[in-house]
C-alpha cells in the first residue's frame, strides 16, 4: 500500500543545495522524507545501472506517495518508467533553457506523471510535451534567508558566477562579485550590499537569487523576466534595468537616494514572504493530491 505522506527525493544534498531546504519543508509539513543523494550513491555503487536498480528497489519496498526527481541528470528513462509503475513521479526543473535542457531531460518531461518548473520559459516549453506541467516559485529558505544587521561593505554586488553578459557588465561597471556564498553567508552578503544585482539567463525567468535577496531585506536591481509583473511591482518591490546605460544610471541614483532605496527593499521583503520554501512544498503536495 502506498504511504499517504511519504516522499522519496532523488536529488543532490551537498552544502548549498536548495534540495536540503526543500526536504526540510516537506518534513515540517509532516511528510516522511527520504533523501537519496544521486551523486553520493553513484560514487558508492560505481555505476548508474546499480544506482538505478537501488532506486527502483527503494520504491518497491517503501512505496512512497510520490518520487521527487530533482532534474534527474543521469537517471535513465528505464528507471523513470519503473518507478512510474510504483509511485507518482514529480520532475522538478529549476534551471533556465541552457545546456541542461537536452534530449534526455525532454524525454523525462514526457514520461513523468507531473512536471514542475521554477522558471517561466521552461514551464511554457515543458507544457508542450506534458500537459500536467506546473509553474511553482522556487522561493527562499525562511530558516536562513533573512536580514542581518551588518555594516555595508559594498555599494553594488552580484552573488554568483560572472558569466556571459554578467561578466561584460562587471568589467564595464566594476561591481563586487561574491562567489560561493550559500545559506546564511548569502543572506549576510545581501545585508552588506547597498545594491544587489540580478541577471536573467536567456530570458527564462528569475532564479531563487531574486527571492533570497528580497527575503534578506536587500534592495534588488534586476533585468526583467517573463511573468514578473504577476508577482512584483517594478519601482515598488524592486527596480528593473534594461541596458548597461540604464543599469549604470540607476546604480548611481539609488546609491544617492538611501531613503527611497530602503523603502523599496522593505516593500520587496514584505511581498516575497508568500514565496517561502514551505509554500513551495505545500504547492507540490497539493498538485500531487490533485493528480490522485
List the helices and strands and how they pair.
Elements: E1 6-11, H1 18-28, E2 32-37, H2 38-45, H3 48-62, E3 66-70, H4 77-84, E4 88-93, H5 103-111, E5 114-117, H6 120-127, E6 133-135, E7 154-159, H7 165-173, E8 176-178, H8 184-191, E9 193-198, H9 208-215, E10 220-222, E11 239-240, H10 244-256, H11 258-272, H12 277-290
Which class of the largest domain in CATH terms?
Alpha Beta
* Proportion in β-strands: 15-25%
Which superfamily, in CATH terms, is the homologous superfamily of the largest domain? Answer: Glycogen Phosphorylase B
- Please compute the radius of gyration using only Cα atoms: 20 Å
How much helix, percentage-wise, in residues? 40-55%
Describe this structure in words.
The chain has 292 residues and is α/β, with parallel strands linked by helices. The chain folds into 2 domains: 6-139 and 276-290, 3-Layer(aba) Sandwich (Rossmann fold), CATH 3.40.50.2000; 154-274, 3-Layer(aba) Sandwich (Rossmann fold). The protein contains 12 helices and 11 strands. A 6-stranded parallel β-sheet has the order 2-1-3-4-5-6, with helices on both faces. Strands 8-7-9-10-11 form a 5-stranded parallel β-sheet, with helices on both faces. Strand 1, helix 1 and strand 2 form a beta-alpha-beta unit. Helix 4 (77-84) runs parallel beside helix 5 (103-111). The radius of gyration is 20 Å and the shape is elongated.
Amino acid at each position: 500500500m502506498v504511504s499517504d505522506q511519504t516522499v522519496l527525493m532523488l536529488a543532490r544534498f551537498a552544502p548549498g543545495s536548495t534540495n536540503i531546504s526543500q526536504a526540510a519543508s516537506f518534513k515540517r509539513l509532516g511528510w516522511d522524507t527520504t533523501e537519496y543523494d544521486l551523486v553520493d550513491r553513484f560514487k558508492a555503487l560505481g555505476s548508474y545501472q546499480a544506482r538505478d536498480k537501488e532506486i527502483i528497489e527503494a520504491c518497491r519496498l517503501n512505496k512512497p506517495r510520490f518520487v521527487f526527481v530533482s532534474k534527474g541528470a543521469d537517471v535513465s528513462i528505464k528507471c523513470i518508467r519503473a518507478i512510474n509503475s510504483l509511485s507518482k513521479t514529480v520532475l522538478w526543473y529549476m534551471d533556465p533553457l541552457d545546456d541542461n535542457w537536452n534530449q534526455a531531460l525532454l524525454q523525462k518531461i514526457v514520461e513523468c506523471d507531473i512536471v514542475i518548473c521554477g522558471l517561466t520559459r521552461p514551464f511554457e516549453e515543458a507544457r508542450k510535451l506534458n500537459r500536467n506541467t506546473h509553474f511553482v516559485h522556487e522561493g527562499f529558505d525562511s530558516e536562513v534567508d533573512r536580514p542581518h544587521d551588518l555594516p555595508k561593505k559594498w555599494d553594488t554586488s552580484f552573488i554568483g558566477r560572472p558569466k556571459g553578459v554578467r561578466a561584460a557588465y562587471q568589467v564595464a561597471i566594476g561591481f563586487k562579485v561574491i562567489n560561493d556564498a550559500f545559506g546564511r553567508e548569502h543572506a549576510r552578503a545581501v545585508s552588506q550590499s547597498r545594491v544587489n544585482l540580478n541577471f536573467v539567463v536567456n530570458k527564462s525567468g528569475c532564479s531563487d537569487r531574486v527571492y533570497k535577496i528580497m527575503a534578506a531585506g536587500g534592495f534588488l536591481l534586476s533585468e526583467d523576466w517573463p511573468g514578473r509583473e504577476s508577482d512584483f511591482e517594478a519601482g515598488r518591490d524592486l527596480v528593473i534595468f534594461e541596458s548597461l546605460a540604464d543599469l549604470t544610471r540607476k546604480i548611481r541614483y539609488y546609491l544617492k537616494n538611501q531613503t527611497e532605496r530602503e523603502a523599496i527593499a522593505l516593500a520587496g521583503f514584505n511581498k516575497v514572504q508568500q514565496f517561502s520554501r514551505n509554500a513551495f512544498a505545500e504547492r507540490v503536495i497539493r498538485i500531487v493530491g490533485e493528480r490522485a
